[in-house]
Amino acid sequence: VGRPKAEVAAEFINRRIHACKVVPYPFDVVHALTYKYYARIEDYDESFYKKYSIVVSGLDSVIARRWINGMLLSLLEYDESGAVVPTSIVPFVDGGTEGFKGNARVILPGMTACLECTVDLFPPQVNFPLCTIAHTPRLPAHCIEYARILLWPQEKPFGDDIGVDGDDPSHIQWIMDRAIERAQKYNIQGITFRLTQGVVKRIIPAVASTNATIAAACANEVFKLATSCSGMLSNYMVYNDTDGMYTYTFEAEKRDECVACSLKPQTLSFNENDKLKDVINYLKESAHLQMKSPGITAIINGQNKTLYMSNIPVIEEKTKPNLNLTLTELGVTSQQEIVVVDKTTPKSLIFRINLLTAMDE
Q1: Phi/psi at 30 (nearest 5 deg)?
Q2: Are 118 and 265 in contact (CB under 8 A)?
Q3: Environment class of residue 190 by beta-carbon count within 10 Å: exposed (0-12), middle (13-18) or buried (19+)?
Q4: Tens digit of each residue's pLDDT (9 = 90 or more) over 28-47
Q5: Measured distance between the N- and C-terminal CA atoms of the chain, rounded to whole angstroms
Q6: What does DSSP say about strands 349-356 and 266-271: parallel, antiparallel, or unpaired?
Q7: Which of 209, 275, 281, 219 is closest to 95 using CA atoms?
Q8: Cα of 160 vs its chain's centroid, Å
């Protein structure tokens, strides 16, 4: 308790299996409270991931899984006929749990269904109505979300350009303190550091038996891939021990129009009077895209122009007025390509815009 889990896990494996050498990768930042940070997956580029023969994921968010999926796809090389060069494929074994439910899957980037091909299978994230958070909180989580969503942007406790980091104890402590102040006004009890971090990071309480089962399934697949002793999982296994025990395996299929692995720009159709904010909302709400904070650039009149970018405050302030302009007013023409960046993927995605007129409709 109180130590980075990467460090603890590495020590345990090295102590138990002497032939193994597990190395947690540090990040060169030491918190004022001597809390040592370990690297985020985004801290490393392609040269880092190319070093490995297999990547195993036990990440705690869908966004992180999608980022790794995009990174491994970006490592692929293609021959003159457009076929994937087998030596450039880094197999991806992914496992996840949610209470008494779990899944394990094996992805061969470029050959089998990637994570984005089935992103619509992930359950939608639970969000509380803003009116409840702001005016009628009833649960500890409402007070925590009040501090995170409303107070943090107003008070900017760690600087103008600093967003909430769910892995930073000082950020969680600040949110918890403000949430407790809020809760006391409404006689709400039960706010703790652990609950605060769970709400901020959308963590669902773990069940040890489920974690062990899924971990074993992933380890089994890694062993098969590394030794070729048996055929690998094809390619998605679901597990449920809510009432008894149930497993089911099926083969997820590649989606021809997958934005990540199809190598084809996806066409998005909008009315010529639709505004840029309609495009942003579609990118966020589409079951097949589910982006979080998309930024858009395009070639307008021969010049590269940032239409909207939310993750850099200075650029967001400058491009925010564009959200209420129509695509036509921005200079976007039919069949024009736009470039979209999002934190769910390390690479830029290209879309083709199809503008419909009243006659087309």
Answers
A1: -120, 120
A2: no
A3: exposed
A4: 444 434 445 567 788 888 88
A5: 61
A6: parallel
A7: 219
A8: 24
């909207």: which residue's tokens?
308
Phi-psi region of 340 (alpha: psi -120 to 50; beta: other; left: phi over 0): beta
- Cβ atoms within 10 Å of 285's Cβ, excluding its own: 10
* pLDDT, tens digit, 9 for 90 and up, residues 96-149: 888 888 999 999 999 999 999 988 877 666 667 778 888 888 899 999 999 999
Q: How far is CA 351 from CA 116, 124, 296, 346, in A?
A: 15, 24, 10, 16
Strand order in 349-356's β-sheet? Answer: 266-271, 349-356, 336-341, 295-300, 303-308
Is 131 noted as a catalytic residue in this protein?
Answer: yes
Burial of 67 by CB count in 10 Å (0-12 exposed, 13-18 middle, 19+ buried)?
Answer: buried
User: Which residue ranges of the chain lie beneath pLDDT 50?
Assistant: 28-35
Is residue 67 within 8 A of residue 41, CB to CB? The reply is: yes
Three-state SS for 358? Answer: coil
Among the options 20, 131, 143, 229, which is catalytic? 131
Q: Which two tokens stand for residue 117?
A: 């091909």
Contact 350, 265 (CB under 8 A): yes
Pairing between β-strand 36-38 and β-strand 26-30 as defined by DSSP bridges: antiparallel
